[in-house]
Design brief:
InterPro entries: Cupin_2, RmlC-like_jellyroll, RmlC_Cupin_sf. This protein is mainly β and 109 residues long. Helices cover 0% and strands 53% of the residues. The protein has a single domain, classed as Jelly Rolls (Sandwich), CATH 2.60.120.10. The chain is built from no helices and eleven strands. It has a six-stranded antiparallel beta sheet, with no helix packed on it. It has a five-stranded antiparallel beta sheet with strand order 2-3-10-5-8, with no helix packed on it.
């Protein structure tokens, strides 16, 4: 197959929590450059997240942030949020208070 016959596509895979508890959901996820995790307003609880590797662009609670390895953020409950990996790879650690990971949350690449 030649490169000229390849069509761009949007690949979406469901985001699954690594651990689901009665009070919190926790995940450690590796994303590739340009992959994005989104949750609409009202769908996720309070979130504490840290960048373990790489860099991410974060849109949360109407603000825009750029975080690198070793930095963290707290996102208030119910706020819309989107994480976009902006390095070749990135590792994101997230803890979300129940209501937790939204059923509609997905990784978009």
């Amino acid at each position: 197959m030649s490169e000229s016959s390849l069509q761009p596509c949007l690949h979406v895979r469901q985001a699954e929590p690594a651990t689901h508890g009665s009070a919190f959901d926790m995940s450690i996820r590796e994303l590739l450059d340009g992959e994005r995790i989104e949750a609409a307003a009202g769908l996720a609880g309070e979130e504490v997240a840290a960048i373990l590797e790489g860099t991410f662009s974060i849109e949360a609670a109407g603000e825009h942030y750029r975080l690198s390895a070793g930095e963290a953020i707290i996102i208030p409950p119910g706020a819309a949020r989107a994480w976009t990996c902006t390095s070749a790879t990135g590792v994101l650690y997230r803890v979300i208070k129940q209501g937790g990971f939204a059923a509609g949350e997905a990784v978009i690449s």
